[in-house]
Fold this sequence. Notes:
By secondary structure, this protein is of the alpha+beta class. It has two domains: 44-177, no CATH class; 190-302, Distorted Sandwich (Glucose Permease (Domain IIA)). The chain contains five helices and 17 strands. Strands 6, 9, 10, 11, 12, 13, 14, 15, 16 and 17 form a ten-stranded antiparallel beta sheet that branches. A three-stranded antiparallel beta sheet has the order 1-2-3, with no helix packed on it. A two-stranded parallel sheet has the order 4-5. Strand 11 (226-234) and strand 12 form a beta hairpin. Helix 2 packs across helix 4. It is elongated and about 55 Å long.
Amino acid sequence: MGRMQNFMGAGRIGLFSVLTGVIGMMILLSLSSCSTPQIQKGQARGVYHVVKKGETAYSIARAYSINLQELAEINNISDVANIKEGQVIFIPDAHQVIEDVMIQAGKSGLDLKRDLSGNERASQPPPTGQGPEKSLPGEKDSSPKSIPSQPSVAEPPGGAVASKDDKPSDLENQGIVKLEKGKFSWPVQGVVKTRFGIQPTRPYHFNSWIKIVCGDGAKVKAAGTGTVIFSSALKDFGETVIIRHANDFATVYTHLKKRYVKQDRSVKKGDVIALAGEKDEMGETYIHFEVRYKGKARNPLFYLP
């Protein structure tokens, strides 16, 4: 397969970084009393790993010390049991490609087993050189742990999809990716033209949203019941609405034509909140839609029907 070229800060700083800074802080401000929002800029960092024979999503996640759920969402892998040899997977925040995933995953498993048995593990840097994820100003550290706790070194066959009744800790212990299909409804009827996560074409950049192409003047509806925490025009993103939902979730709707809701208004799932009408360079009407959990962007396709 050969070594893939390291991907460290490739491409320009896209609009994603601005949106993450502004919208992320607005969501966080709604959940706690923080200082004035700040715009954070940064580049997506990581490497591309080519799947080799015998490797699974679970072993790759373990080797790179990344949460399996995050790995699946950022790469739009809804069925982690069926990754293919030769498939290219982006590993966020990694500094180098791990050539032998199975050996590294085994080492990680032994270290975890020692931890669980109560023995102190020797202090050593992560294999990829990555450190803890930095939080936005005023944000509590809500990022998933780098290495999911495992009860044993044994690996499930590729991982699986969880039911809604499974608890997060149980899912990590089984190497399972959680899909909450139907938690939110589609905000508008249309076609997804751009997916969440690292985009495969140069210049490389990360999208915290999905782009939905729809009819001109289409009604944009609340994806879930909640409270409007932002409703105004936002530079570079046009008319924008943000709704806070239960259990630390929020949904973001940008590039709208007209807003129908004001801040602090309660909305129900399916209520019309805006109209679509902004057009892209191809002349197609579209909106951007985000799902956020504790201020962090998540893959909307894992939560939509």
